[in-house]
Each structure stands twice: as structure tokens, then as C-alpha cells.
Queue: 2 jobs
Job 1
Amino acid sequence: MNYYEKLGISSETVELFSEAKAAAATAFSKIDETASYNAAKVLSAFKNNGVSEAHFAPSTGYGYDDLGRDTLEKIYAEIFSCGDSLVRHTITCGTHALALCMYGVLRPGDTLLCVTGKPYDTLEESIMGEGVGSLKEFGIGYACVDLKADGTPDFNAISESVTDSVKAVWIQKSKGYEWRNSLSNEVIGEIVSCVKAKKPDCICIVDNCYGEFVEKTEPTEVGADLCAGSLIKNLGGGIVKSGGYVAGREDLVEKASYRLTAPGIGKHVGASMGHTRDMYYGLFTAPHIVAQCLKTAVLCSTVLEKLGYEVHPKPNDERYCIIQAAKFLSPEKLVAFIQGIQMGSPVDASFLPQPAPMPGYKHKVIMAAGTFVSGSTCELSADAPIKEPYVGYVQGGINVESAELGLMLAVENLKKI
Ligand SMILES: *Cc1c(COP(=O)(O)O)cnc(C)c1O
């Protein structure tokens, strides 16, 4: 039995991917090297904090003195080389974790300055929504400095914009749903230096979604004061069913925790109710899973470029997040590709995703996510807002062998248009 044929994958497509993998060998070995380094970082933090079976025990009620939860938060802080962290299944998603940072740190009269262009779509309501209790409604100002046309930070404009009222600066590491470079932690460090040179007490917050373990450093190691992300992305390792994290300066993590629970109580409460083991296990596998995601992205980039599509990043570019973007230039092709990803998924492969309105997004969005954890984007998934020039964003892949099959089916479906 030829199982490729059974799946509807032609020998031509199998050959295309086999060539792509050969071409990607150097990129793959660089990815492996970073994964090995980050695995050492994680193991070291586990050993240093004496992780044992007892840490996996669930707590109930208030969850006071939950050893597993408190130790995991120390481990995160060690991995991020920072003062403290908040790692909770009750942080519902990345947007929630990031909103905790904003609401924890900013007060009426302050200004939030975004220095990497408009922040991720789902944060717009938190910053300037009407009738939702946004920062704006609490008298907190917002300003934005775009990246330069070449995708690098506009250091002059940033420096000029860091005025007295700017309490915090917002840096988005990943491209998100934009056709732009994701930022290396080295560049994030340069932004932080530029901001602090102008105003030493300005708080630098990084939206770290999709960026964790892609490099050997994290933003807090290059001077960022606070960063946050989702546990159904990189750091959950494909295992965590729900959650988010905040990591950074101890006083700022505490402030964020006051928004998660209540002022004064903060991170001292929160029953783990059996989620702790998954969070440890997920963090432990995350360096490897991120490497699988990165290899999937490289493969996607290589194949789509071979097929004549403009891709970002290009196959051999340095990667600073797990997202791969490609321009399809026609809505039909974009939709066909995304639907093909769904066809190649282990769960809900028979579903045909359609463009639809989504909370937090302006345009109709199409999303393929045939995932074990609903909406998890460290599993192979693809999304796109339906707007010109019809860019599709592919991310995840908890094992590159299966993710490759998903990409193969996406390519087959694309060929039908
Ligand atoms: C995913 C993402 C978010 C929001 O996270 P959700 O978990 O979808 O709420 C914010 N910023 C960036 C860059 C992201 O990729």
C-alpha cells in the first residue's frame, strides 16, 4: 500500500518535499543546535529547583502554598533570567497575558508607546476600545511608532517619542499577522537601550508570542522588563491544554498578578487543580517542539518559494518566531492552501474551514487548526485575514513528519486552483 497515494499525495509532491528537505539541511542543523542549548537551559532549571513527583500534586480551593505552581514560576523566572513569573492555566490566552501586563503597569495619565507598529489585532480593544473598559477609557494614552520600510526599528523616532508621560513601551517580537520581519532579541535589546537612554525608568514590555525558544536568549535577558505569551503556543510544548505566562521584574509581575486575581492577593492564590504536570511536561518538551515548528516553517518556505510564491521569511533567513508567511495574491489560492492544511490534519480533517468574522479581528479570517488542543498554534495550523495581497500565515507542527504531510496536502489542494 502506498500511503501517500492513499492520502491523495502525488509522487511529484513527495519528490518536491524530498528536494526541499535536502535544501534545508543547513537550516535544520542550526535549529537543532538552538534546541539542544534550550533543552540544557530547561533541564538545568528543573534540576536546580529539585523538581519531583510531589510538584505535580493538584491543589484546590484558594491554592495557598501550592508547591508545584510556585516552583514552576521559579523555573520560568530562571529560564527567562528574571525576577519572577506568573504561569497559570487561568490565563486564558496570549491576549489575556498581555492585557495583564498593560493593566498591571499603566495608570491614568500614563501613555503606552508601541514602537513596533500597531500591536497585534486582538489587543486593539484592550488599548482603545469603546465601552469595554479599555486603557483609553481609564485615561491612559496611546502612541505608536512604525517600523521603518525595511522592517527595522526607527530608533530616532522612538527616542523622540519617549516623552515624560510614556510609562511603558510595547515591543512585538513576532510579525503576527503582518508582512514584516520578526525581531531578534539582539534588536529588542537595542530598542530597550534606546528607550532607557532617554527615560531610564520606562518599562519595556515584550509581546513574546511565538518567539519563545526560537533563539538562545529571551527578551528579559537583553533588558526587557516584562514579557508574556500563550501556553498553547511555544512554551506549552503541544501538551498544555490552556494557559499563559508573564515573566519579568518581580515588582511588575506582582502588579500583573493583581489584575489576574485581586490587588494584594495576586499570585498567592490560584488552585492548580491538576494542570501542573502538563505545564512541567510541556515546558520540558518545548525546546524540541519549537524546533519541529521551525523545521516545518522552513519546509513550507522552501516549497512555496519553489512553486513561485513570495515567502517571508525566505528559506535560509534567520528566524525569530515560528510564523511563516506567503503571498498567494488571489483569495481562491489562499483559501485552497489553508483548506489543504486542514485536510492534512490529524483531527477534523474532513472539516472545510471558511472565511468568517472572528472576535478581535477586523477582516474575515480563515483558520485551519485540526489540532488536539482547540486552536493550538504550536500544532500545524494556518490562518489568514481575507485581504489583499492574500497573505497566509502557517505555524506550528509538533512533529515535522506529520506537519510535512499537512503541507503536502495543502500543496495538492493549491494545485487544483
Ligand atoms: C497569538 C498572538 C497574540 C495573541 O494571543 P492569543 O493567544 O491568540 O490571544 C498576541 N500577539 C502575537 C504576536 C501573537 O502571535
Job 2
Amino acid sequence: MDQLTKDYLKRNYGIDYEVSAMADEAEKEIAEVFARYESVAEYNQYKVLRAFHDNYVSDTHFAWANGYGHDDPGRAVCGKVFASAFETESCIVGPFICDGTHALACCYLGLLRPGDELLYCTGEPYDTMETVIGLKGDGNGSLKSYGVSFSKVELTADMKIDIEGVKAAIRENTKVAVLQRSIGYSFRHAFSIPEIREWAAACKSVKPDVICMVDNCYGEFLDTKEPVAAGADIMAGSLMKNPGGGIAMGGGYVAGRADLVETVSYRVIAPGIGTDAGLMYDQTRRILQGIFMAPRTVCEAIKGAALFAKAFEKLGYEVSPRAEDPRNDVVTAIRMKSEEQLTAFCEGVQAAAPINAHYAPEAGEMAGYEDSIIMASGSFVQGSTMELSADAPLREPYTAYFQGALSYDHAKFGLMKVLQSLKDRGLL
Ligand SMILES: *Cc1c(COP(=O)(O)O)cnc(C)c1O
């Protein structure tokens, strides 16, 4: 950045010249990483545009409907655009799915019957899924309460999918095998499309009719293909994350094989009705604009992620993935050295937000999460982690999970606020 900008940051935000220089130096070292991200974003932008053209999206689709919404023009077109962009047979998307947890829960509760087993192939499920499965909480309404059993295959010591272990774990009653692409609150790499392809093929080799399902949260548009195009049968995700593009006001999606998506739609809406009803509540335009912007937004966010990773690597912190590593989700895990540092990190992110920057984040209870969580998110869409945000369970080893940013400049500003926040407390 030029001197004018550095002076501006110093004068207005108390960003020391040393701190702005650190951000600039980290940025210089990862120019080639940025170029890699840009080429994926470019391909995906054309792919998404093609999805609009193939489905003849027109301004009449934005119109309000009411009542049962049988003829809501936006519902069908949103499903078709998402299905085309993800290269799947079918997709259900809209405000009638609240979020990623709801989308995933509808898949499990819709596809599994009493006596069936759900097999997690990537170790611990994401925190909110544990309550859905019945591993935590009082179990009311969980899969367990319906007589659906659960088992999991741990990752290998180097945090890869244990392919042989997965093959051995698939049994007669294993109906759905799940791969969680993103890292959740773990310290590992997100899984790549080639890894997903290998996993799906391995599952099918022992049980051709096992349903291979991917929790695709945070994974959309990181590659030129999505999991279903690589052999999975069905996947689900959140519009508060990548495919919402920072514009969708909320929601989730389920995409994949048409027969499976239809069965899931009976759980989302009702048996026999499925996707023939459901109002879009005027969200069609935002959902479409969101997916249109998503390849670019994801690119901005991961450029920011690589910048954070590089800056903290240079300071000697353990980060995952490292700045130059291949990236398959938008999350960067950074190991802070104390609870104090973790709090200072989150305060820095919060102070950089456009909304609620004057509030300090405090650890607290969150529905669906067991540990006390500190969350920094001052976003236009509440809780959106496509926007600049960080969160962390308040437990050792004090890992901050950083993600999002609608623009790279904002991520860079976030980094400087975090570094300054640490410096001001004598923790850098
Ligand atoms: C965020 C997330 C979810 C849940 O999505 P929400 O929209 O927050 O409910 C599920 N799985 C993974 C891996 C996630 O990152």
C-alpha cells in the first residue's frame, strides 16, 4: 500500500507503520497463490453464468408470490440454477431451509429409516450435527430417537481419510456414508475433490447402493467441480457461507441425485408435496445474486485467508492450511498461544467489522454448540461467515478459526486490526 494509505490507517485507526508493513510483506510473498485462486474463480464465474443462461433466468422470476406458493416463479428457477452450477440433477434451495444444519438434518432425517446406520467417514461430525445425530443434548428428535444408529471412522494419524477403514466399516445396514469436507473445529486440511472422488469410489466398491453424502459447507467454489460431480450422490450446504455470496439473507441447499433430493424435500416440506410448494418470500433475487457473486466472494475470502496464514506463519505460529498449501475450504485455523491472545485476535476481527465494530466479543453459549464459543462477526447478514469473521471454542489449544471477507481489502484491514490488537496488549 502507498504512504497515503499507511498514514491514513495510522491517523484514523492507530495502525502502526510496523503493522501495515507486516501485512504488505506477507502479501508480497503470496502473489502466486493469489494467481491460482483467480483462475479457479474465473472458471467458476463462467460456469455460474452458464447456469443462468441455460435456465433462462428473467426478471419476472423475482416477483412475489403468496399463499401456498404453488406457482412461485423463483423457487423452481433457483433450484435449477443451483443444480446447473453444481452439475447435479436436482437441487432444493430457499428460505424454507434455514441454514446448513437444517439442510444436513433434513438429509439425514429424510434418507435414513429405523434400523439404518449413518457412517461418518471423517471423524468427529461438526458440532451442530452431534445434537442432530443424538451424540449430545437430550436426544429428543435426534436420529438416535428414531432408531437410526451411528458410527464413525477416525482420520488417519496424518489427518487423511482412512479409506481401508471406511471400506471395512460399511455394513449391510449402512445407508448413508458422510464425508465432511471442511475442517470444523479441528486442525487439519479440508478434503479436495480428488480425495472425495477416491472416497466415493471406495464406498461404492463395497456397497454399490450406499448413499455417499458430502457436508459441503465452506467448500463451494474452491475447485472447478463440486462433490456430486466427483462421485458423491448428494450434498448440502449453507447460504450464510460460500454459495450465498454474502448477499443471500439466509437459507441452505440440498443438491444431488433427483430421487434422493425428492425424498429429502418430503422432509423439508411434506411427503407428497415436496418442492411443489414453499414461498420464496421475495428472496429469489438475493439468492440468485448471491450465487452469481459467490465465485468472486470466495476468491476474495481465500486471498484474505492466505494473507492471514502467511502473516502468522512469519510470526512463528502454527496455521492450517499454510499459505501455500492447496485450499479446499475458506477456513484458516491459527493456534494462538493463550486464551488472552485468542480473545485479542477475536477483538481485532470484531473491531474491523463494518457493523457492530464498537462491541467487544465475549465467549458464551450458542444453540447447537456444547463448548463456550467466542465469535467475532459484525456482518450485514447476521452470523454470516462469508463475511469477515472469526470464532473459537474457548478450550485448549486456543485455536482461532478465521474465515470470510466480502473483499480482500477488508480482510487485509482485519489482519492489521488483529496484529495491532495483539501488539497493544504486548502479546505480539
Ligand atoms: C457451518 C457448518 C455447518 C452448519 O451450517 P450452519 O449454516 O452454520 O447451520 C455444518 N457443517 C460444517 C462443516 C460447517 O462448517
